[in-house]
Amino acid sequence: MGSVTSDNPPGAAEMASLRPCLPSPLTEVTDERFTRHGLRLLLKRDDLIHPALPGNKWRKLEPNLRAAAESGARTLLTFGGAYSNHLRATAAAGRLLGFETIGVVRGDELADRPLNESLARCAADGMRLRFVDRATYRRKTEPDVLAALVPPGAFVIPEGGSNAAAARGCAELGRELRGVADVVGVACGTGGTLAGLAAGLAGDARAIGFPVLKGGFLGAETLRLQEAAFGGRTGEWTLDDRFHFGGYGKRSAGLDTFAADFAARHGLEPEPLYVAKMLYGLTALAQEGAFASGTRVVAVITGAP
Predict the structure, then answer these.
(1) Residue 266 included in any domain
(2) For residue 91, what is the domain's CATH number?
(3) How many Cβ atoms from other residues are within 10 Å of residue 158's Cβ?
(4) Chain-centre distance of CA 226, in angstroms?
(5) How wide is the angle at C-alpha 61 spanned by C-alphas 189 and 249, nearest 5°?
(6) Taking a C-beta distance cutoff of 8 angstroms, is the pair 41, 299 a contact?
(7) Which of 166, 229, 236, 288 is close enough to 206 for a disulfide, judged by CB 3.0 to 4.6 Å?
(8) Is residue 179 located within the same domain as residue 282?
(9) pLDDT tens digits, the chain, 305 residues: what are they?
(10) Are residues 180 and 295 in the same domain?
C-alpha cells in the first residue's frame, strides 16, 4: 500500500484504503491455569486489525486521523517515550496517508545514542524526531511549551493517542465483546483504551486495566477521559497496579519466562511491554480465585512484538 502523494489532505477514500480487519478475531484457548478454576480464556486479537496500525492504536488513531484530515492539516505531531508503539503507529499512518509526522520524544539524552528499533522504524516511515528533556516533556500540555513545539497548522495528537475521540473509538471494542465476555483484561499506558472499552461493554461485564507504568495516576486519567467522551464515569472498570514490573519498559526474568511459556502453549508470542504484563496479571488473578467458576475471561491482545 503506497502513501498518498496529493498536495491535499487525505480524505474519506484514503482513510477507507487502510482496510482494517474489524471486528477483530476472538479465539478461545485452553489453558489449565484457567480451566482448573472453571474459567474460559479467550483472546481478542486486536493485533490483527491492521499490519501497521495494530490493536488499540487503530481504534485510537482512526478518529484522530479523520479529524486531522477534516481540519486540512498536513502535519501530525504527537508524543511518546523511546519505545512508544503509539509513535510507531503514527509514523506508519503518516506514511500511508501522506501526512508529515513529528514525534516529540521524552529524554534529550537519547539524541546522542543510536536509535532503538522502535525509533528507527519511526524514522524509516518519515517521522521527524524531536528529543526534549524530561522536565519539558512533563509540561508538554502547557500552552507555552506547546507553542514552542508545534509548527503552524499541525494537528496535535496526545501521548498514546488518548483523548475523547480515542475513547469513543475504543468503545467499539467493548461493543464487539457484548454477550461473549464477563471480564475483559487490557494493558494500560494512558487509559484511553480502558475508558472506551468499559463504556462499550454492557450488562454485568467488567473491564480490568493493568497499568504498565507505576505511579497510580491512571484511575484519575481514565475517569477524565470518560467524562470528556461520555459525560461521566460509565461501565464497570477497575485497575490492578501490581503487574507493571517496575515501570514502563521494565521487565523481569519471571515475566520473560511467563511470556515464553505462553508462546509455547498457545503459539502467540506476547508483546513484552504491554501484553505480557496484562496476561501475567490475568493469570495471577485466576490463580488467586478472583473470578467465579464459569466466567468468560477475555484478554485483549493490543499489539505484536
Answers:
(1) yes
(2) 3.40.50.1100
(3) 17
(4) 16
(5) 25
(6) yes
(7) 236
(8) yes
(9) 333 334 555 555 566 567 889 999 999 999 999 999 999 999 999 999 988 886 678 899 999 999 999 999 999 999 999 988 899 999 999 999 999 999 999 999 998 899 999 899 999 999 999 999 999 999 999 999 999 999 999 999 999 888 999 999 999 999 999 999 999 999 999 899 999 999 999 889 999 999 999 888 899 999 999 999 999 999 999 999 999 999 888 899 999 999 999 999 999 999 998 999 999 999 999 999 999 999 999 999 998 87
(10) yes
H-run or E-run covering 142: none
Question: Are 201 and 283 in a shared domain?
Answer: yes
State the CB neighbour count (10 A cutoff) for residue 124.
13
Diameter of the chain by CA atoms? Answer: 59
In whole angstroms, what is the distance from residue 152 CA to residue 166 CA?
23
Residues 211 and 249 occupy one common structural domain = yes
Given 153, 176, 192, the domain boundary residue is: 153
Is residue 123 located within the same domain as residue 251?
no
How far apart, in whole angstroms, are the C-alpha atoms of residue 217 and residue 304? 26
Last residue of a domain, one of 131, 153, 175: 153
Cis peptide before 9 (omega within 30 of 0): no
Cβ neighbours of residue 1 closer than 8 Å, sequence gap 6 or more:
17, 18, 96
**Domain identity same for 141 and 212:** no
> What does the alpha-carbon distance between residue 70 and residue 154 come to, in Å, rounded to a whole number?
13
* 229: containing domain: 17-51+162-300
Q: Report how far residue 76's alpha carbon sits from residue 203's, in angstroms, rounded to the nearest whole number.
A: 38
Q: Do residues 263 and 125 share a domain?
A: no
Total structural domains within the chain: 2
Give counts: helices (H), strands (E), the chain.
Answer: 12, 10
List Cβ neighbours of 138 (8 Å cut-off, separation of 6 or more).
none
Residue 250 in grid coordinates: 521494565
